[in-house]
Structure formats: structure tokens, C-alpha cells
Amino acid sequence: MGVLAGHNWPVFLRFRGGKGVSTALGVSLVVLPWLTVTAVVPALLVIFLTRNVVIGATIWFAILNVLIVVTGQGTVQIVLCLLITLVVASTYLGRSWD
């Protein structure tokens, strides 16, 4: 969560940073590599077909959250994935008002 917060709200850029999707992908690849790759494939297909990264990222987060629960991952992984999803979603919703 610290990596994601540092990317989204960097001190040196007056707390204006990225939206966190690439950082979330990196964290997810480290914590759950096979589930992440499994979820990224359909998301990339959606990105290429629609040319919309936001829709692709939404698909990726949805599939990953479902896979984590269905495959019986631990509580820590489930909570971490849900928190990351909420943080990234809040950055998209928060920036839409700018």
C-alpha cells in the first residue's frame, strides 16, 4: 500500500501523481503472479479492441478480485487486492472532478 500511495500522491509533486494501475499491476505480479497473468490476458484483449485503458483496467481488477476469492487465497491477499482496487478506483473518481 505504501508503494501505491507514493506513486499516487508523491510529496515532491505536491501530492499529484499517477492513478496507480501500473503500480497495482506490479504489486499484483509479485504477490499473485499466475492469477495476475490470467486476469491480464482478457483485459489486454479489451484494451486492444476498445482502445480504452480504463475499461481494460476495470476488467482486470474485476477478474483478479473474482479469481482471488474463487481460488481460495488467504485473507491477506483478498484484503490487499480489495484495498488496491478501492484506492485505484478512488483516484479515477477523484480526478474526474478536476
Please summarize what this structure is.
With 98 residues, the chain is mainly α.
Distance between the termini: 24 Å
Helical segment tally?
5
Strand content: under 5%
**Unreliable runs:** none
Tell me about this structure.
The protein is mainly alpha-helical and 98 residues long. 77% of the residues lie in helices and 0% in strands. It has 5 helices and no strands. The protein has helices at 2-8, 21-31, 33-50, 53-70, 75-95. α2 packs antiparallel against α3 (33-50), α2 packs antiparallel against α5 (75-95) and α3 (33-50) runs antiparallel to α4 (53-70). The longest helix has 21 residues, at 75-95. It is globular, with a radius of gyration of 14 Å. The mean pLDDT is 87.
List the helices and strands and how they pair.
Layout: H1 2-8, H2 21-31, H3 33-50, H4 53-70, H5 75-95
Feature tags:
98 residues; mainly alpha; 5 helices; 77% helix; 0% strand; globular
